[in-house]
Amino acid sequence: MTNLTLKQLRYFEALARHNHFGRAADACSISQPAISVQIRELEETLGTELFQRGPRQVRLTNFGEEFALRVRDILRSVDELTDLARASRDRLVGRLRIGVIPTIAPYLLPAIIGNLARMHDGLDIHVRETQTQKLIQELADGRLDAAIVALPVSEPSLTEIVLFAENFVLVRPGEDEGKPVPNREMLREMRLLLLEEGHCFRDQALSFCNMHSARPRELLDGSSLSTLVQMVGAGVGVTLIPEMAVPVETRSAAVSVAHFANPQPSRTIGMIWRKTSPIAKQLMLISEVVRQAAETLRAQHNPASVELNLVAAAQ
């Protein structure tokens, strides 16, 4: 079998991921007819179809699914060869693909990007904001170099570096300021606004309240922390948010912020990457940049509003 090209394999992987020629073409920055031609030529070279074409989307054939597994391994290995060359240099240059969960990205990312740009002027930073499970999968597939998430993720193939810990605070309507702070038992009886299914922050908040499930009338879902805080300001209920989000999310909302009694609900934030990554040494240095950005954030705000508890990095 001859004439398979890396370009064709990358186009195939994009189409297998998006199940749509238009979206795959956009992801590859080429036209839809061009990617269609490349996929057809790949299928002709292989002598079999890789996709079942439908009017609105495509699906992998049985052979296509098996082929996709091999292709992802090949592309990941090719990318790691490039990383191996990058690792031989004194400083990190070129593309850095980093993922961040939505409950961290808006608050910490600006400082991280600014610091990295100043320290590594040859770095081309690509950011991906999505939920933890998607970030883990994209790391495994080689589409990300590292991700900033809540720990632990407990994936044997990934290195986990602890960066800092932070508490959760209670956000309630402004007229509740000064009232006693409810404990977790009282919180279970209140109308609690949380992020929708799939966000790890939702699971952490439910765990604090000892609520593995909740009655629909008592639990309302939102797509972002901003939405939740604005709903609280409108008198809909109460919510929990991480301390780093307080300055941004509460500045234009009629809400009050209260801290729970000890032991306070909290989360541990860390950075993860593949154990096989050739640039692991450079990623460790970048994790220090993230840690310093968190420390700067703490110093910029009143500890009563934002108090990040920095901890030593895991060795």
Automatic annotation (TrEMBL):
The keyword DNA-binding applies. GO terms for cellular component: protein-DNA complex. Keywords: Activator, DNA-binding, Transcription, Transcription regulation. CDD domains: PBP2_OxyR (cd08411). Residues 4-61 form the HTH lysR-type domain. One of its GO terms (molecular function) is DNA binding. InterPro entries: LysR_HTH_N (IPR000847), LysR_subst-bd (IPR005119), WH-like_DNA-bd_sf (IPR036388), WH_DNA-bd_sf (IPR036390). The keyword Transcription applies. SUPFAM superfamilies: Periplasmic binding protein-like II, Winged helix' DNA-binding domain. Belongs to the LysR transcriptional regulatory family. This is LysR substrate-binding domain-containing protein. It comes from Mesorhizobium ciceri. The lineage of its organism: Bacteria, Pseudomonadati, Pseudomonadota, Alphaproteobacteria, Hyphomicrobiales.
